């Protein structure tokens, strides 16, 4: 894959402006159709190889499968992954990390990320992305890999825009759409879909004083 990793300054400026104003942004400019297709093919190949596992909720000893809360399956990714599509994904989002740090002094140092596959009928109930006992996750990034996704298929991410969850934005999971939002501020959920739904979900994390990183 011919990788073009330099993001246009105008795209980064728009992301920073929207994050400053709203705390969230929906972008369709950072990833080319080719980059998304390569990620989709990588995701599906590993899905077919049986490398995914059912997603859990919580962390450490509280972690467990809760099918009434979420019913997707995930495969964790590493920046050193040999697949060029995954390397391109991490390289692109690292430019976002640097721009966000420069603008907001958040001290983001790490991106943990996984492929997520939602079989038909799967969902993820309303939740926040920050753990109660660990505030490292600071900025959530969700990138969709679903080409030609029809509105009638469902599967939207419903992002709640206020603390009382009375206002919301539904994001259709179409290929190339990237959603960024502050992890501790915005409740959100994944609505059931009528067909398989693919995404890459990541969290920019800040280092905790005196603590080692954990996944």
From TrEMBL:
One biological process term in Gene Ontology: cellular response to hypoxia
Residues of the Fe2OG dioxygenase domain: 107-206
Alphabetical list of InterPro entries matching this protein: HIF_prolyl_hydroxylases, Oxoglu/Fe-dep_dioxygenase_dom, Pro_4_hyd_alph, Pro_4_hyd_alph_FE2OG_OXY
Alphabetical keyword list: Dioxygenase, Iron, Metal-binding, Oxidoreductase, Vitamin C
Cofactor: L-ascorbate
UniProt xrefs under SMART domains: P4Hc
Alphabetical list of PROSITE patterns matching this protein: FE2OG_OXY
Signal sequence bounds: none
Superkingdom per UniProt: Bacteria
The keyword Metal-binding appears for this protein: yes
One GO MF term attached to the UniProt entry: peptidyl-proline dioxygenase activity
Xref: PANTHER family: EGL NINE HOMOLOG-RELATED, HIF PROLYL HYDROXYLASE, ISOFORM C
Name listed for the protein in its UniProt record: SM-20-related protein
Species of the source: Aquitalea magnusonii
């Amino acid at each position: 894959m011919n990788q073009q990793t330099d993001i246009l300054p105008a795209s980064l400026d728009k992301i920073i402006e929207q994050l400053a104003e709203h705390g969230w942004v929906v972008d369709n400019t950072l990833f080319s159709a080719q980059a998304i297709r390569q990620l989709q093919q990588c995701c599906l190949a590993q899905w077919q190889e049986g490398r995914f596992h059912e997603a859990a909720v919580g962390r450490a000893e509280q972690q467990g499968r809760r099918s009434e809360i979420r019913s997707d399956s995930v495969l964790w990714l590493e920046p050193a992954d040999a697949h060029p599509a995954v390397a391109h994904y991490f390289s692109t989002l690292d430019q976002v990390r640097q721009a966000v740090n420069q603008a907001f002094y958040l001290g983001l140092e790490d991106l943990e990320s996984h492929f997520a596959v939602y079989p038909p009928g799967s969902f993820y109930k309303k939740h926040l992305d920050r753990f109660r006992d660990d505030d490292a996750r600071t900025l959530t990034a969700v990138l969709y890999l679903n080409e030609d996704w029809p509105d009638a298929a469902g599967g939207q991410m419903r992002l709640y825009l206020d603390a009382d969850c009375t206002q919301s934005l539904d994001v259709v999971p179409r290929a190339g759409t990237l959603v960024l939002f502050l992890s501790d501020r915005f409740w959100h959920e994944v609505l059931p879909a009528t067909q398989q739904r693919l995404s890459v979900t990541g969290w920019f994390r800040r280092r905790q004083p005196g603590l080692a990183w954990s996944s």
